[in-house]
Amino acid sequence: MTYLQALLLAIIEGITEFLPVSSTGHMILADALMNVRDKEFTKTFEIVIQLGAILAVALLYVKRFFVSLDIYLKLLTAFIPTGIIGILAYKSIKAYLFNPFVVIVALIVGGIILILLDKWTENKTSDFEKAEDVSYAGAVKIGLFQCLSMIPGVSRAAATIFGGVFAGFDRKIAAEFSFLLAIPTMLAASGKDLWESKDLIHSENVKLLLFGGAVAFAFALIAVKGFIIFVQKYGFKHFGYYRIILGVLFLILSL
Questions:
Q1: Cβ-contact 111, 242 below 8 angstroms
Q2: Which domain covers residue 248, as residue numbers?
């Protein structure tokens, strides 16, 4: 992997990680277009640089973690389903689902669901004042939806936002809970992948990971701030249209 390829992948990660368009799917498609040589390290790179995006969310929402213990307990509850399935299915997911065809199908199907979600939430008000007010049963529901995001192209953000709306949130609070849930989820995913791929990590690869993480951090800061404003004003449908167009475009190219 060259530094130019690392830069492009990290920009894609930073911009798309918290948008309902699938950052992993975008990076897999970008990797296929750029024909990055070291496929195994590239998969690890695409997961580990998420740590940079996590730091962006932690910085933006740091005050939320000093208000009460509730937010920690609800996020832990929501994370448990993903943690269990991730441990059991990690190798199979990485071996069989990280390919452009899976991403293309997931992008198109997910785009249709986002358009329907937009219509459903157009006039919806939240049952809760804050993200941490959700019930533990609601947190489990969101966690179960998040499990779907293990399929590349589904989008962790899209799955958890849909789960948040299903649990009683409006658009804004569903997005905020999705951001916060990303912290334990992505920390666990990145940590596990680093451990599983430790043989691939040498001095040059460490430099690439640090570089990619820093770039992802910078672009995630911009994306998170802009996303909340955009969703409140325009909803989710435009992300749905984008997913469908992108999926169809890559389907045509692949054929």
A1: yes
A2: 3-254
Cβ-based neighbours of 250, under 8 Å, separated by 6 or more: 29, 100, 103, 104, 107
**Burial of 172 (C-beta count, 10 Å sphere; 0-12/13-18/19+):** middle
Number of domains comprising the chain: 1
Phi, psi of 120 (to 5 degrees): -65, -35
Express each pLDDT in 227-240 by its tens digit: 888 988 888 899 99
- State the residue for tokens 């990690």: 90
Of the candidates 5, 44, 48, 7, which has an alpha carbon nearest to the alpha carbon of residue 199?
44
pLDDT digits (tens, 9 = 90+) for 72-109: 999 999 999 988 988 888 778 777 777 788 888 999 99
pLDDT digits 0-9 by tens, 197-233: 777 677 778 888 899 999 999 999 999 889 888 988 8
CA distance 169 to 133: 10
Angle between helices 3-16 and 23-34 in degrees, nearest 10 = 160
